[in-house]
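Thread: Putative glycosyltransferase, structure

OP (GT): Posting the sequence first so everyone is looking at the same thing. Length is 336 residues per the record. Can we get the structure tokens written out before standup tomorrow? I want them in the notebook alongside the other entries.
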Amino acid sequence: MFIKVVNWVDEHFVDVDIRVLLISSKGINYSKIRPHIHIDVLDIKSIFRSIIKVKRYIKDYKPDIVFSTITQLNIMLSLIKLVSKNFVLISRETNVITEEFKTNNYPFYYLWLYKLSLKVSDFKVFQSIDMLEDAIKVSNLDNYKIINNCVDSVVDRPKMKKKELDTLNLICIGRLEKQKGFDRLIKSIQNFYSGFELKLDIYGTGSESESLEKLAKDLNCGYRVNFKGYDDKVMSIINEYDLFILSSLHEGFPNAMIETLSYGVPVWSVDCKGGVNEIINDTNGRVFRDTDELVQNLVRFKEYSYDRDLIWMDATTRFSESKARTEYLEVIKRFL
């Protein structure tokens, strides 16, 4: 989403000089950034260890507006802004922080720093209602806006998948980390019994990769669960699947889910914070209490008659690129 915003600003505000400062080059697809945009890379593994170099960069470049899209960066930049108050800080949050705090072993003072960043930022962008409501619990807010993530502007009308009467093909896409809840999904799948078989393909990599594969093997459901690794072209085969599953403990605003919907594939999810209940409706899927309830209901999946054309149309309308573009440009324009 960050690259999209950079390109939108460059396209719309022709007289604005844009620079992109990356803490690390890892995972960045430079080909998607407009070629004339200046990019600087610090290549520092830890965000907070980069604070001195980022402060020096801001001092030398003297930007009028700094736009940041990761919570740790937002915190660091708010600390810099306390000392150097000559720039506008627009911070975009990417997660439901109090839920993330429970999942990860953050130091005790992290929540205090997050509260500070909310106060210091001149404008805050939240991806979902859940994210905003969570931030309000931490700090009183003003100058903020909810802007949902978007899907690509050109997504072809989905091709209908030929139904296989004997197999239900499921897909999960996400980092193999504790937050994504793949362990509890695998445990629930162990207890699935029906007149047809199911196959679950999990796309992604992460620190939990080995433990998840071992769990599937130990529970004797390795024949059902396939770990496919990272595949940046997974959306080209998404219509081979009957259903997308989200098993997360919490989300920000799940990109993989809305991308899947934009190809007409229905989604089932556990009830978690982070936009799930804003995305899923009667047209495109269901929300369940937990993975056990979700898996138990898979036996009835073929009773549902999901209209893939309708799912595609709903997703590409509600989460259109043009809508997000307009909303982000309105935010930037306020401070030019």
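GT: Both are above now. Quick notes for whoever picks this up: The domain at 167-318 is CATH 3.40.50.2000 (Rossmann fold). Residues 270 and 290 are 5 Å apart (CA to CA).
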